[in-house]
Amino acid sequence: MIQGLYIDVSSDEIRTMLQDRLKYHQGKTSFYKEQLAKMQQIDKALGEEARTIGKTSSASPTESLESSVRKHENMTLYYKFMSEHVVPNETYRLGDGELQRLGILAERIY
Hints:
The protein is mainly alpha-helical and 110 residues long. It has one domain (7-101). It has helices at 11-46, 48-52, 61-84, 96-101, and strands at residues 7-10, 91-94. Strands 1-2 form a two-stranded antiparallel ribbon. The mean pLDDT is 88.
């Protein structure tokens, strides 16, 4: 008897999915670093005025970008480590949590 809904995925396929997530987060890190550099130029040019522009929360736009960079750098490390430690020639049984982590599901669907 099978209990629950799980998907079996080969180690080669899981490694590819992990590497895809790694590339995604590397791209996001690069994007946010570019945006941060632009924002820092604006901050420098405008001085104090830049800190008040668009301030709708306790975090400044620069702080939000810095946070995004840190988040995606951390996720890059996570997926790099995971992809390097896939056990070869095995089958992985994945549930919703793993599918979310791999980017197959954007969010829980129930």
